[in-house]
Predict the structure of UbiA family prenyltransferase.
Amino acid sequence: MSSNGLITLPDVLLNKHVQNSLFADKKLIATLHLLKSSLLVSISGALRIYIAFLLIQAEYIALHCIAGGLIIYSVYTLDRAMGVEEDAVNRTELKGASARTALFISLICFIIGALVLATGGLLAIAFLPLVTGYLYTKGLKIGRFKLRLKGSMGVKNTVVGLSWGAFIAGIAGAYSANLLPTVLVFLFFGTKLFINSTVYDFRDIKGDFLAGIRTLPVALGEQNTRRLLFCMHVVSHAALLFFLLNGVIGFEPIVLIYSLLAGMITIRNFTHQAEVESASEQTKRLFLVDGESSSIVGLRTITGLVL
């Protein structure tokens, strides 16, 4: 503003520069939120592959766990970057993020992960979650027929469970001489990831309802969905206990006990719709769901050192 009260050209240019800077800062912050949003789930996924090695009693391959984590990161970041209608409500912190940056980093992570798995003859497994992730986000259109997993009741959760269960068990059990432990681990993690994906649907009820997406909490209601998840959780762990006691899978009681308790607490406390999730509640949920495998590996390591 000049001394005579009139807006001068330098003032206009300065204001425009400030606005551009603020816009760039907001875009950068949103992009960083986007890039880090899948970091914890990728680490959790890598550790789940390690746990799968233990249960299958197969030789542990560290590079395969890391490669699996990179692919998980790329698929989940790709889903965030491509964006869908309900994200405008559910994830406002990602608004304005650079999709190109996220897509580029996702591609790099996927290529590295796929090349590592390809050295072990597991290239097809590397592409399984990528193809499923694309169908989940964008769907498949052939003529008048269109399949979009994200809008179907329970189908999305089933596909998430089956695809990631197959991905985890497929990597860990690739060189196992006995197929049964691999199948059991596939069913165990498939059920667990079905439940986890449904738990996260409770957080997104408002956005999913507005977008016309019939998730289980939207279609069945909170109470019925909670009962379904609890039954699935108890049955899957009872089955795992049976085969653990009979020596079919590795004797890993810490995996079984912690997973059982963490899952029950998660289903009890985080299957309720909340308009705003407090920071403490978010931390607890992340610790119990995405941090479960980290806690299991940590407890197992500490127990091994003590005993």
Observations:
- The chain has one domain: 20-306.
- The domain at 20-306 is CATH 1.10.600 (Farnesyl Diphosphate Synthase).
- The two ends are 74 Å apart (CA to CA).
